[in-house]
């Protein structure tokens, strides 16, 4: 192998591991401090932080150790477990982001539905996400094993055996669809509907606030108005505050989605290229751009804690 390239890969993976681990541990600590007043949005952030920490510890860390040792050093069960956990963390991180976006869609487009047993609904969505991620990761256990890199060489590594010449192409295409293409499609639809609802809501507020539209407060019996203009203004202000809080959480989720797409698109593009083009580089390639691109997907797990930090001042209420 190219030792200089290996050193660069170790440096990149080490940096990603340190930043992602520290950032997501910080998120989990912040969520722990808010445990007594945790909202639905906090709950989704907590589990997205857990899944991102899983990416750091179960995907990046094993890959880093693997780059250091060159060959996988461990028994066959450990090989299968590592490969299972690597894909599990990818599925969990992606689908947790997906259900968080679906929750924002319900909060904005179907607010009454989102208010019916909100905690139970959130826990159900999160539980199903973890369960689905565990099930979809199971093929890794059967595909990967400790095997000889070349028959008769005596050198073992944790490699895949797809059984058929088209197996790698089918599996990589399937994982790309499940982890990237389909989720991005659902996310795009959700945000289109959210943006449409927000624009419609803002337009309605503009029209209702125009001169001549009325808006007089409902009087108390006998014509008295205990709340007065101040009470009416307070109620209007409260509604606007809640609406703005929801919009801010939508903005935060959108930025997380944008970071996810930006970080994962090159990885899956290179993965698809490697199985659909016979002349493409492979895992043993010394092509620097190809090798580094394969490592940068986990950057989204580094970005998310900083995105939370940027929006954190607006996430304490009305989520």
Automatic annotation (TrEMBL):
Annotated GO MF terms: peptide binding; vasopressin receptor activity
SUPFAM superfamilies reported for this sequence: Family A G protein-coupled receptor-like
Key words, A-Z: Cell membrane, Disulfide bond, G-protein coupled receptor, Glycoprotein, Membrane, Receptor, Transducer, Transmembrane, Transmembrane helix
GO cellular component terms given for this protein: plasma membrane
Keyword Membrane set for record: yes
Primary location class: membrane
Regions crossing the membrane: 12-31, 43-61, 81-102, 123-146, 171-194, 254-276, 288-311
Superkingdom to which the source organism belongs: Eukaryota
Compartment annotation: Cell membrane
Name of the protein: V1BR protein
Lineage: Eukaryota, Metazoa, Chordata, Craniata, Vertebrata
Gene: Avpr1b
């Amino acid at each position: 192998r190219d030792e200089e390239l290996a050193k660069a890969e170790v440096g990149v993976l080490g940096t990603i591991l340190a930043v992602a681990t520290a950032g997501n541990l910080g998120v989990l600590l912040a969520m722990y401090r808010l445990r007594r007043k945790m909202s639905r949005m906090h709950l989704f952030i907590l589990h997205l932080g857990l899944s991102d920490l899983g990416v750091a510890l179960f995907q990046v860390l094993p890959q880093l150790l693997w780059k250091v040792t060159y060959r996988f050093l461990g028994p066959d069960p450990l090989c299968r477990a590592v490969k299972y956990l690597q894909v599990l963390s990818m599925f969990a991180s992606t689908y947790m982001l997906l259900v968080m976006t679906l929750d924002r869609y319900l909060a904005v487009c179907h607010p009454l539905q989102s208010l019916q047993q909100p905690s139970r609904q959130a826990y159900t969505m999160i539980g199903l996400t973890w369960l689905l991620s565990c099930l979809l990761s199971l093929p890794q256990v059967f595909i990967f094993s400790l095997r000889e890199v070349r028959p008769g060489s005596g050198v073992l590594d944790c490699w895949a055996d797809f059984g058929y010449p088209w197996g790698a192409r089918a599996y990589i295409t399937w994982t790309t669809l499940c982890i990237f293409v389909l989720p991005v499609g659902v996310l795009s639809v959700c945000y289109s509907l959210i943006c449409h609802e927000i624009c419609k809501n803002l337009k309605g507020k503009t029209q209702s606030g125009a001169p001549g539209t009325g808006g007089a407060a409902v009087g108390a019996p006998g014509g008295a108005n205990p709340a007065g203009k101040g009470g009416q203004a307070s109620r209007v202000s409260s509604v606007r505050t809640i609406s703005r809080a929801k919009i801010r959480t939508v903005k935060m989720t959108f930025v997380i989605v944008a970071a996810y797409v930006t970080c994962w698109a090159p990885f899956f593009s290179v993965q698809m290229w490697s199985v659909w083009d016979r002349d493409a580089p492979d895992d043993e390639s010394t092509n620097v751009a190809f090798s580094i691109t394969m490592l940068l997907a986990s950057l989204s797990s580094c970005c998310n804690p900083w995105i939370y930090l940027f929006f954190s001042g607006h996430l304490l209420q009305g989520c």
